[in-house]
Amino acid sequence: MTVIDHAEREHALLSASSAHRWLICTPSARLEETLPERKSSYADAGRLGHEMAEHKLRKHFVEPIGPQKFAAQMRKFRQHEHYTPELEKIVDTFVDYCKSVEMLFSSRPYALIETRVDYSHVAPEGFGTADFIAVGDDLLVIADMKTGQGKPVSVQGNEQMRLYALGALKLVAGVFPVQRVRMAIIQPKVYDEPQEDEITVEELEQWAAEIAPIAQRAYAGEGEFVPGEHCTFCRARETCRA
């Protein structure tokens, strides 16, 4: 398996992680833009978990990391204030899943670790960082690690995963004849097994066409504020009149 790209984590106005919210409450993205991002120990632990996962995946798939260098970096991770054995267990569960997808392909697929994907053809200026992507034959697999336990995240119809998949397809367009997309969410604190969903590229593109006009309104800050369960993680939830 070969790694062909890497990117630092950034956030777009129409982020994939908040797509469930801005697809329902279109003005929320622009309203949140005016407010500072909230810091939390949970988010810091999540970032550490993703750094650990990247390090372990690179050792497995890329190989250049020697045992001494690998061990030295792991010692640094384990000295971090947010490190816990439980967090590393979550990371290992995710890494094991990523290793297991190799058997889905007839030959070694290409792997992309912590890679920036651009879905701006659907949501203006939209991009994000996918945890893990593997592609080969007619199949693209995209996997996301969730370190939290507060809210179960279902993969069925998951907007974040679908936007990442659209960006991943754009990235490999013309190189791989992808016809199927398998999306997986690994959330060990909630689910004992990886949550998976598979759709065709045709189905994914049809969904993209349906949400594109909504994304345009969200980017423009147009539409009505719509309160609901999607407000839980909105930065404006304490001041929003709706």
List keywords for this structure.
single chain; 242 residues; alpha/beta
Structure description:
Strands 1-2-3-4-5-6 form a 6-stranded mixed β-sheet. By secondary structure, the protein is α/β, with parallel strands linked by helices. The chain contains 7 helices and 6 strands, in the order E-H-H-H-H-H-E-E-E-H-E-E-H. The termini are far apart. The protein is globular. The N terminus is likely disordered.
Beta strands, count: 6
Through-space gap between termini: 49 Å
Bulk shape = globular
The number of distinct helices, counting runs of at least 4 residues, comes to: 7
Order of helices and strands: EHHHHHEEEHEEH
Biggest β-sheet description: 6 strands, mixed
Q: What's the gyration radius in Å? A: 18 Å
What fraction, in percent, of the residue positions are helical? 25-40%
> What percent strand?
15-25%
Mean pLDDT across all residues, rounded? 91
Low-confidence stretches: 1-9
Structural class: alpha/beta
Neighbour order of strands in the largest sheet: 1-2-3-4-5-6
Protein topology:
Blueprint (H helix, E strand, L loop, with lengths): L1 E2 L15 H4 L5 H6 L7 H21 L5 H12 L6 H16 L9 E9 L8 E10 L2 E7 L13 H14 L7 E7 L8 E6 H20 L22
Parallel strand pairs: 1-2, 4-5
Antiparallel strand pairs: 2-3, 3-4, 5-6
Helix pairs in contact: 3-4, 3-5
Brief account:
This protein has helices at 19-22, 28-33, 41-61, 67-78, 85-100, 159-172, 201-220; strands at residues 2-3, 110-118, 127-136, 139-145, 180-186, 195-200. By secondary structure, the protein is an alpha/beta fold.
